[in-house]
Amino acid sequence: MMNMLRVWHDAAVRFATRWMAGDALPFLARLTLAGIFWRSLLTKVSTVNLLTYTEFINDFPVERARLRLPDLPLELKPALVAQFRDDFALPFIPPGWAAWAAVLAEFALPILLVAGLATRLSAFALVLMTLVIQVFVYPQAWWATHALWTVIGLYIVITGPGRASLDHLAGRLFAR
Fold this sequence. Notes:
This protein is of the alpha+beta class. The protein has six helices and two strands. It has a domain of 123 residues.
């Protein structure tokens, strides 16, 4: 009886380890990191609100949206370049270029991460972006947020996208 329980236990552990390490954790890490930078993008560009509803807070109507997407073509919010010029201490890069670089990275890289395409490169680029944010923009936020973003990004860089990705599918197709 004990031997049969040990066999079942070992099989369950192997299944959970394979599923978690190969599928669930890499996918959740990709979604988490992509979501962080996608939400940041939505603060920088004009957006389209989908599935809107009105919520009453203290008898005042507040318009909410269940889904917000960037309005295409991307259009920077008017105060963004001024924020990059005045608030962020990025050296060597003109504020307009820095604003557009951040917006384009926050648009393209999360899409690539969710799809699992060029995953390691995308995650590495977001780790570098996190380090730039840490050093030049919000140096006081390391343990609060940036350390977590860096760990998630490095996990993706080191372990890869997992089996639920276009990278994995492409690797299998080209291996034939």
